[in-house]
Amino acid sequence: MGIKEDEVRLLISKAQQRIQVAIRMLHEGFLEDAINRAYYAAFYAALAALFTKGIRTRRHSTVLSLFGYYFARTGEIEEEYARIYRRLKEIRESADYDVYAFFEEEEIRDAVDQARRFVDRIKEYLKQIGILD
User: Fold this and answer.
1) pLDDT of 53-109, one tens digit each?
2) Are 37 and 25 in contact (CB under 8 A)?
3) CATH classification number, 5-128, choose in 1.20.120.330, 3.40.109.40, 3.40.50.720, 3.40.50.2000
4) How many CB atoms lie within 10 A of CB 101?
5) Beta carbons of 17 and 116 less than 8 angstroms apart
6) CB 86 within 8 A of CB 99
7) Does the pTM exceed 0.85?
8) CB 128 within 8 A of CB 94
9) Is 70 exceeded by the pLDDT of residue 1?
10) What pLDDT sits at residue 78?
11) What is the C-alpha to C-alpha distance for residues 78 and 133, in angstroms, rounded to an integer?
């Protein structure tokens, strides 16, 4: 199955939208919603990257594992970004499923910024391989 560049562009567009919503939620004080949107920004960006390898999956744990395997392990994308993605997933799961979870605004602000960096790095990768201008 070849790369469908329009699908990759659609996924990265969804990632960028989720970052904008995360920022808005953060400013409005909805911290758990902000982290959820920040995580999904990274999730869609990771999916976009995996699509460039012909890999299609929607399972969150699988996306995380395959991103590490195909990008961080190979050095195509720095290991730092796999760690960012893993941490966003952990925080999002805690925010969504742990009724006792509590987050400081600064922690969520940092997570949103890390998600933005992740999306920006995937966009850079997509430019390097000629999918984005």
Assistant:
1) 999 998 999 999 999 999 999 999 999 999 999 999 999 999 999 999 999 999 999
2) yes
3) 1.20.120.330
4) 13
5) no
6) no
7) yes
8) no
9) no
10) 98
11) 21
